[in-house]
Amino acid sequence: MATEDVNFDSEEAITEITRRVDSITRENQALFRRLLDGERRFRRLAKAVWMVQEDERRRLARELHDGIGQTLTALKNQVARLHIKYEDADETLAAALKDSVELVSTALNDTRELSRLLRPSVLDDLGLEAALTWLARTLGQRTDMDISIDCDLDEERLEPEIETLVFRIVQESLTNVIKHAGVAEAVVQVQSSPDFLRASVTDKGAGFEMKSALGEDNNPASSGLRGMKDRVELFGGQLAIRSAPGSGTVVELAVPLTGHQD
Length: 262
Ligand SMILES: Nc1ncnc2c1ncn2[C@@H]1O[C@H](COP(=O)(O)OP(=O)(O)O)[C@@H](O)[C@H]1O
Ligand SMILES: [Mg+2]
Description:
7 helices
């Protein structure tokens, strides 16, 4: 009798335990689904915020180019005409007007460059390779650096979001090379396969201590690299940064070309 009791109890206990395990498993699955759902919503929201920021940059870039840019062009032409008019009549005035034309020219070029750096229209019009070539030339000329672009995209167009993402990562990485690496050369490589786009920015400059630069020691001052990593992860991609003091830096990006959208 006693043995049967024990058996009966343990059978009931096992049934109860199984029931509870089942229920916990179901709860866990539901929680997991909610977590995934939350993450997907967060990604969508973060991407939307980023795209709004890019749209705003596009609008500002256009306004700078078409608004202030046009006004400066008109001003430059007007002062140039005055310069011609007074060239023979008044030497002092003519010299001042010539200086003014140069000043307005500088302001016009600065405005155009700022506009393009905010959002290069070549990225929308001609795509990633053309935009990277333009970026390398512009930054190279401005800083006296040799920035080479090795890109196998030719005229292939990718999704606008991906083109923008890769352009911004390369732009920010090159800005870091210019600001921190202390070298006169940088290499940008871009390779596409049917499923992935890979891009890297390499320099043989000063390098840095990875831990502090990525904010892993709670250093809040390093938002650039951290922000790049977060942005790439929003697109289901990965950003690897390899660096050490004295050994140069490689920033490597891989982003899926299909199925990245949630
Ligand atoms: N290419 C590079 N060469 C040398 N140091 C770099 C390079 N890129 C980043 N760093 C270092 O990592 C730090 C963090 O970079 P980042 O997050 O972009 O911030 P910021 O450029 O605003 O300083 C930089 O301050 C610099 O010390
Ligand atoms: Mg930076």
